[in-house]
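Figure S4 source data
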Amino acid sequence: MRLFSFDPTMAPEGKTSAIVMIESRNLAWWSALRDGDPARYKEEMRKVGELVVEALEAELGGIKPAVEVVGVATPGTAIPATGRAATKGSCPPARP
């Protein structure tokens, strides 16, 4: 988990934001779901967000009541947003 409580541009005063990165190797599944069934894709992202909040609550306690917004990005999100499969750092362009 990466916290941004030091950066006032990341959240309103009195709030903070965090990023939790979880490795996923299911690029093809997420991409196919995004393209083939957008409603289910959104539902699966919602479920992942809930699972992450629940895991943080179990590990750290007191987090769940403080969570106001959850955004989930999947491997299927990265390629349309960036044109590459990288989620951090650089990734060479996809080959045709």
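Figure S5 source data
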Amino acid sequence: MPRTLVSAAIAAASIALVPAAAQAAPDGLNAQEEAQWNELEKRERELARTVDDRLETVEKRRKQMDKAQKRLREARDDVDDAREDLAKANKRLIRAQDNLQTVTSRRIELAGYGSGTDTRN
């Protein structure tokens, strides 16, 4: 599990414990204890915001990664299609070269140069 997710999970767990402690706070706290209590509540809110921000960031990055993976799959499909098109074009080229060779050989034969019989004097 990535470190940020672990940190977020730990922070979320600690935040879940703080409100339970806050509900069990005794009445009659002195000024110093009240200040400490207020500081703890303030820290709790800060941690909650931090956790929310981190979770939001993780979610945004996950969505970005999903989009990037989709684009990658589409690009791979495009490459596969291009390879298929190239293979078809190569086959057509080979057939065209074979046809050209056949026509050229046939013309040479018809002209009398390749048949073994010289029709010229």
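Residues 51 and 57 are 10 Å apart (CA to CA). The chain has two helices and no strands.
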